[in-house]
Amino acid sequence: MSYERDNIRRMTAYQWGEQPDSREVLKLNTNENPFPPSPAVAIALTAFGVDQLRRYPAPTANDLRQKLAELHEMEVDNIVITHGGDEGLRLALTTFVEPGRCFGMLEPSYSLYSVLAEIQGAKIFSAPLGDSWDIPRDFAHQLNEAAVNLACIVNPHAPSGTLLDADRISRLANDFQGVLLVDEAYVDFVDPALRYDLVRLINAFDNLLILRTFSKGYSLAGLRLGYLIGAAELIEPIINKTRDSYNVDQISQTLGEAAIGDRAYAEETWRQVRAARRLLREELIKMGFQVGISQTNFLLAEVPLDFSASAEEIYRALKAEDILVRFFATPLLEDKLRISVGTKAQNTRLCKALARIIGKLT
Ligand SMILES: Cc1ncc(COP(=O)(O)O)c(C=O)c1O
Q1: Which residue in 112, 198, 208, 355 has a CA-CA distance of 20 to 30 Å to 69?
Q2: Under a CB-based contact definition with an 8 Å cutoff, are residues 315 and 325 in contact?
Q3: Pocket of ligand 1 (CB under 6 A)
Q4: What is the pLDDT of residues 311-357, one digit of tens each?
């Protein structure tokens, strides 16, 4: 006899990327920033007095909220700080999707979405992406027909790295009758020349939520810090009702403020990742992989049919050489590898190993 709720017993658990203990392993599998956090974060961590841990943290992380509000030229009421972006997703589901009602998404995308929806006891409406990762023209109509309460899209898209422009998202938010959450986990790596900016739409829509994280852009995946930006009416129930009272610990709040205070450092890492991404893509294409343009810190490399090695075999051969990339045995992805962009030296190690493996296996 099981004590679990029926839907928890039936559901498939989220499969997180491998997190090896060894520092020798080249980790290009979970899209961490290859550069360390800002020295300002290191200073703030050293200066953090352990006596501060005796008390509960600031309940709504208001100092950090204030700094983020200034950064985005929004009001404090438009922001809620979360324990990683993942908690932001969970809170959106808890707050906006009644159990038994419908959650909307595109397939493939971040595999946590459907897991969180199942935990909530929500039905899932999932629309397949087209061959070039384009979303269905009538996506809003499909969501409305399925009576979706909350839909999540990831932009730039994971795992393809493609970017939808803000006008397209604006039309979607306009036509969709539920809450649209745009997961911008990788937005910091978007080429600034594209002038992509969704935050400016927040004041125009009462149903648009944007998710951001410190994990990627600020090299702080180990901290668990993220936030949602949205209309005050969407943020208020999360702040006051569905969030845990002290959902973000004091160390994270303090280090988050330090990271925002030295944004110039983070921006330089984004520039270097973009430069390394361009070079890595060129190298992979030279080797015969098909690799689309990515606006994130990873590339999706398709293994062509004339390779005698499959994506899974290449993934395993790389792993045997202590190099981790991500392989998904799911439709549209089973012939591809998702590779996080590393430093120049890391990418060179990867490419040398790949060249050897392809020479050996093909
Ligand atoms: C698409 C996407 N959204 C959200 C997240 C959540 O990031 P975190 O919980 O580390 O802030 C991730 C993490 O990999 C992601 O890939």
Answers
A1: 112
A2: yes
A3: 31, 84-86, 110, 154, 158, 183, 185, 213, 215, 221, 226
A4: 999 999 999 999 999 999 998 899 999 999 999 999 999 999 999 99
